[in-house]
Amino acid sequence: MPTKYLFFTGGVVSSVGKGVTAAAIGLLLKERGLKVAVQKLDPYINVDPGTMSPYQHGEVYVLDDGAETDLDLGHYERFIDIRLNRVCNVTTGQVYAEVIAKERRGDYLGGTIQVIPHITNEIKHRIGLVAKTTGAEIVLVEVGGTVGDIESQPFLEALRQMRNEVGRENVFFVHVTWLPYIGATGELKTKPTQHSVAELRSIGIAPNMIIARSDYAVGDELIDKIALFCDVEKRAVVPMITTSVLYEVPLLLEQADVGDYLVERLGLKATKKPNWKPWAKLVNEVRRPKPTVKVALVGKYVELHDAYMSVREALKHAALSIGVEVEIGWVHATDLEKGKGWEIVKGANGIVVPGGFGSRGIEGKILAAKYARVNKVPYLGLCLGMQVMVVEFARNVLGYKDANSTEFDRSTTHAVIDLMREQRAITDMGGTMRLGLYPCVLQPGTKTAKAYGIPKVDERHRHRFELNNAYRGEFEKAKMVFSGISPDGKLVEIAEIADHPYMVGSQFHPEFLSRPMRPHPLFLGLMKAAKERSEK
Ligand code: GLN
Fold first, then answer.
1. To 10 degrees, what angle do helices 384-396 and 362-374 make?
2. Ramachandran category for residue 15: left, alpha or beta (phi over 0 → left; psi -120 to 50 → alpha)
3. 461 catalytic residue (yes or no)
4. C-beta atoms surrounding 282 within 10 Å
5. Judging by beta carbons within 10 Å of its beta carbon (0-12, 13-18, 19+), is residue 35 exposed, middle or buried?
6. Is any atom of ligand 1 closer than 6 Å to the C-beta of 356?
7. Does the CB atom of residue 383 touch ligand 1 within 6 A?
8. Whose C-alpha lies nearest to ligand 1, atom 3?
9. Residues with Cβ within 8 Å of residue 241, at least 6 apart in sequence
């Protein structure tokens, strides 16, 4: 069977959950026994989001192969429970970089390089790679931004061309829009949806399905109207009302018959009946009133929760699995330095210090780690959070007052966290960190080994600095335990404090592998310890 393509475009406004919708539809198809993969096309000119400020872009989501990608890939992986690869996130920057490199090599034999066909060919080539590298039967492709953006035009043009090249019967366009609510008249409006469909049509794309997002119930007459004016079948107009439970979206789309409709329209062969029991149970569990466990998240970009999307989800997954509700207290690390924000830290039964770069807020994070260690508050350090845990220990337990990471103090006499040897000669910022999956051997008898229950794990990394091996012996003598080590013994991957209920730091990012139905062991360890403390 030829590869089938589902293309997702957005209309009216951004941030209406196009990524979650694509992820949820991917799950509807996977639940029917079909092999899916999802790709995001990002219209910005950065090669990847790795060099972008989290304020601009939210979290950078890291894949097994080390690709630094858009946070929507986190939605895809979490909802569908799949592992994606580097070709699943394409940016304008990547496309142009490749075309220009080919031009410089002389590959185009004197041709004039143009958006059509050279840029669009490169885009189509990259879309084609998804099925080739993942073996997916159905490739879902989400175009970032909204229709009408100058930046996304070459992507849409490429999709339009693909429809003819792979056959109309193999391509299906889903357009996700927004129905604004007019308070004065108390009605939802379809006009912006009509305009965005008109815009799509002007570039040669007629949507096959319209998912109309709304904060209010959508009446039948509105559905008729959208079907009529936007020229789609009534069955293919899907109202999607805002839900407070993210993981309910697949259930809502299933109820709206989207799964069966797509199977029918794309001529797919479902090999099994979807089993929504686990999802329904999960959603019920989210809704059920549960005891609350407070966790303080001490970070740098805390006003933008999207910057910690996977961390937040991982905390929720772990909390749900033990029947509690996690309430995250967002704390600015810099506030702690000024004596502010401590009421949140002190009111919490767990502390998370997530990843980060640069010196802003570092001392505040070190104070949070000290508070956790001294007061025996469950602590999970993620990458930078592990490094500050090590620095704090060196300063206050080993007594090296100026201990630091050389990322923040180049002239420290106790560089307990230092640049990795392989990183020393690197000057480029983009894509040059230790990225992606690396193995880690767990040390028997440790809290970490107990949490995982297996002897060896592979986890996703994104960092340049590491624990300085020269200090390993001293740390161990003072009862810091290196519970996860690279197989060659050279890199400390996980550290924990022996005399503490749960103080664990990992050099990798466990949040990227947490799934709704399979919470990550390190987050589970934290939440269990935090729950225990909250019950005392
Ligand atoms: N800045 C630190 C490093 O590069 C930590 C990175 C992170 O938290 N992802 O090693």
1. 70
2. left
3. no
4. 20
5. middle
6. yes
7. yes
8. 463
9. 213, 214, 215, 216, 217, 218, 252
Question: Atom 6 in ligand 1: which residue has the minimum CA distance?
Answer: 463
Q: What is the C-alpha to C-alpha distance for residues 346 and 372, in angstroms, rounded to an integer?
A: 9
Pairwise CA distance, residues 527 & 520, whole Å: 11
Residue 263: predicted pLDDT: 96
Partners of residue 91 on adjacent β-strands? 42
Return d(Cα 406, Cα 428) in angstroms, integer: 18
Cα separation of 391 and 393, whole Å? 5
pLDDT tens by residue, 117-142: 999 999 999 999 999 999 999 999 99
Q: Is the CB of 122 under 6 A from ligand 1?
A: no
Instruction: Look up the pTM and report it.
Output: 0.95
Separation of CA 356 and ligand 1 centre (Å): 6
- The C-alpha atoms of residue 239 and residue 252 are separated, in whole angstroms, by 9
Q: Is the CB of 384 under 6 A from ligand 1?
A: yes
Q: Contact 70/42 with Cβ under 8 angstroms?
A: yes
Can you tell me the distance from the alpha carbon of 393 to that of 104, in angstroms, rounded to the nearest whole number?
52
Question: Token match 């990843």: residue?
Answer: 355
Alpha helices in 381-509 (DSSP H): 384-396, 447-452, 472-477
* 91-100 residue pLDDT tens: 999 999 999 9
Identity of residue 423: Q
Residues 322 and 531 sit within 8 Å (Cβ to Cβ): yes
Q: What is the pLDDT of residue 379?
A: 98
- Number of other residues whose CB lies within 10 A of the CB of residue 201: 14
Q: What is the pLDDT of residue 181?
A: 94
For residue 330, the one-letter residue type is W
